[in-house]
Predict the 3D structure of the following.
Amino acid sequence: MQSVADRLRALLEAAGRHWPAPIDHLVSIGSTNDRLKERARSGASEWTVVLADRQTAGRGRHGHSWVSPPGNLYSSVLLRPAFGADRVCLLPLAAGVAVAEALAACGVEAQLKWPNDVLVGGRKIAGILAEGLAGASGVDVVVLGIGVNVNAAPAGLPPEIRATAASLEGVTNRAWDPVSVAAAVLPRLSVWYDALGRGDPRSIVAAWRDRSVPWWGRIVEVRSGAEVIRGVARDVDANGGLRLELEDGHVTTVVSGEVQELRLT
Ligand code: BTN
């Protein structure tokens, strides 16, 4: 029988993408991001992919865990950007756009919540954890971890996540092969990465804006560690930062955090 890695390679090939790097598949791993960072440190080439059927220590943004039962997509992609920090900071947004486009190819219109939560009907269907490894000249490795709830129905998730999670199967009423979802995401990611490489950051911000939740002009709260900033969501700037208008009228740019819309009663 064809291995998972070979199946992904064949699906990519059928879509006209010869995958230029190793694809590692594991039945179970702590975190695909952690595994790929180890691979990066020992010289793995750009576009190396690690996939797992389940994770025992999946990680989300801001130190959250990412519950990772079988049936979903857990993948990490290794990038070695040759461009500077002004464009590297757009990679998390680009990955969100790539996932939303892949879901659109599956017939599901997703929305992006800054910076890169992927939502369907206000519930989270996918998340992205971008981690950089610093070298002598700045960040020279970025590991993009992409988790998509494919078949693991929210009912199978812990109660605190269940109410806010969606799955591809749940919204389309059919089962999906997580490997085919990976085969839809990876080519879109490489398209946006090439756009960044060409020095075309504006197209990514525009594509992100086109798919973003319609919170512009509304009051949001951004939490970053112990800090909480409240303001009116105005825009995303050319570096992917969230521009918020504060109560005193000043506009500030937030570069990291968890955002939620405030529905004031
Ligand atoms: C988030 O929204 O908090 C980000 C979730 C990222 C989850 C993926 S699953 C594959 C990769 N490995 C991890 O440990 N995390 C990412």
Q: What stands out?
A: DSSP finds eight helices and twelve strands in the chain. The radius of gyration is 18 Å. The pocket of biotin is lined by residues 31-33, 55, 58-61, 64, 66, 74-76, 117, 127-129, 145-147 (CB under 6 Å). The CA atoms of residues 170 and 240 lie 31 Å apart.
